[in-house]
Amino acid sequence: MTVTLAIANQKGGVGKSATAVSLGSALAKDGRRTLLVDLDPQGNATSAIGSSKELPLSVHGILIREESAAAAVTQTSVPDLWLLPSSLEMASAELELVPLMGRELRLRAALAGLQGFDVILVDCPPSLGLLTLNALVAADHVIVPVQCEYLALEGLAQLVSTIDAVRARLNPPLSIISILLTMEDRRNRLSMQVADEVTSHFPELVAHTRIPRSVRLAEAPSHGKPIDVYDPTSRASAAYAAFAHEIESRLAGRRRVATGVAS
Question: What CATH number corresponds to the domain at position 126?
């Protein structure tokens, strides 16, 4: 069965797109047929994987005009990794969704028609608007990247409340599967204090893997390559490979629990 993971945090600059692209590539290299959905109007994930934001079919068309998601999916340069790209039209998508019937259900309906993927990763915009709501309704689980810097917890409680509301009203199975600490600098005392604070608030959710602050990771999008292609020997590449394994382990654990409850 396909599992859909939304990568969400309404705070910008926390590494959502880097996580979506890097995790997607790492999962693909583990043999998981992975689809990356770029729901962010900025289209950073689309650019970072080396694709164009001017393709004739994009996520905008499937949300607003109910075009075929399967027709909009494009192969990336990474084997077993596909992309449902963002486009320049996405700048107005939030407003265009407002008057539409079933506006919060459109992404779920579009993705339900896709077959052949093990994992779908949805890169969300830095907001809690209709686009992020579509991702949360379509997702099985949420990954929350949190930057290891001051005010890291700001907005996290609001995101958790939003996820609880979506679970109660629109998507009962939805859950946070992991909080991923990003941009960690072990030489910086504040960075370590923030990591400890987040872990103390969410001990069961914070991933064991932490993503280090990395110049190579910051450079990779400008070359249109995920970090494990741009610099496979970097610490960031190793960290995302480890996080992919951790996510696979957590998903397997959730499936075992669900099977046990069902039986």
Answer: 3.40.50.300
Per-residue pLDDT, 173? 94
Total domains present in the chain: 1
Concatenate the DSSP letters of all residues of the chain into one string. --EEEEE--SSSSSSHHHHHHHHHHHHHHTT--EEEEE--TT-HHHHHTT--S--SS-HHHHHHS---HHHH-EE-SSTTEEEE---GGGGGHHHHHTTSTTTTSHHHHHHHT--S-SEEEEE--SSSSHHHHHHHHH-SEEEEEEESSTTTTTTHHHHHHHHHHHHHHT-TT-EEEEEEEEEE-TT-HHHHHHHHHHHHHSTTTEEEEEEEP-HHHHHGGGGT--HHHH-TTSHHHHHHHHHHHHHHHHHHHHHHHHHHHH-
Average of pLDDT values for 211-215?
94
Residue 262 lies in a domain: no
pTM of the model: 0.94
**Sorting pLDDT into bands at 50, 70 and 90, what band is 261?**
low
The domain containing residue 15 runs over which residues?
A: 3-254
Residue 94 is assigned to a structural domain of this protein: yes
